[in-house]
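Lab channel / #folding
Pinned by the channel admin:
"Please post every new chain as: sequence first, then the structure tokens as a reply. Keep commentary short and put observations after the output so the thread stays searchable."

First post following the new format, from NK:
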Amino acid sequence: MSVFKIPKEDLKKIVSVFIREIGLFIFMVFVLFFDSVYFSENVKEVQNILNFLMIIGFFIMYFRTVKRVQELMIFAVIIGFLGEYLFSKYLGMYTYRLGNIPLYVPFGHAVLFARVFRFSKVSLVRKYHKNIEQFFGSIIILFASMYLLFFADVFGFVMTICVFLLLWKRPKDRMFFFTMYLLVAILEIGGTAFGCWKWPNIAFGRFEFLPSNNPPSGISLFYFLLDIGCFVIYTQRNKMAWFRLKSSRKLNS
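Reply from TO:
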């Protein structure tokens, strides 16, 4: 596998960067236990604990990052709120334990977005991006195929195919979105295992020809709408900077 063709010392540094930027978020998935069915049966107002912890985590991340990422994080929270109400409350794509939209969710989207963005922009990661993308892509294919085979997750598999199709002619976005796919998969597995939210056994609870697991494998497809929305708003607000960036890319191509 091409990732093992990366020089050993560089590979160690990439793993270290991954642990620093992404590892903490993976650990935070276990904090979802505070909103689990088991924990809520023994502690009142349990969801508020997680809301508080995530908001604190959001602001710690916010004040430790650069201005550009700060702006993207704010957009991610706003779009996250809107997206959650659209997909959960209006379309019934999934349901949270209390039937509400917990505050920790849109703030969590922003933290996830920022950490994946920072990881994908590290110079050493960009240097070996093709090797890492091939490795991540192989894991994604294996993961989605296993979900299809063992859990009849047609919905998730179709969404995974859509992810690869969307990135077919956008190689510069693959690192970010492949990393996002894997992190979202871990997040969804943790959240549904604890009973924080639940997916119906068919897509949107309506389409019987699309059986779904709880969670479906390729749900990161809908996170892409959040990510793309953040970038679009950012570029519209910073047209001059975006124009200079595009011009420099043309000169370097």
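NK: Strands lie at 95-96, 197-198, 202-203, 207-211.
TO: also worth noting, The chain is about 70% helix and 5% strand.
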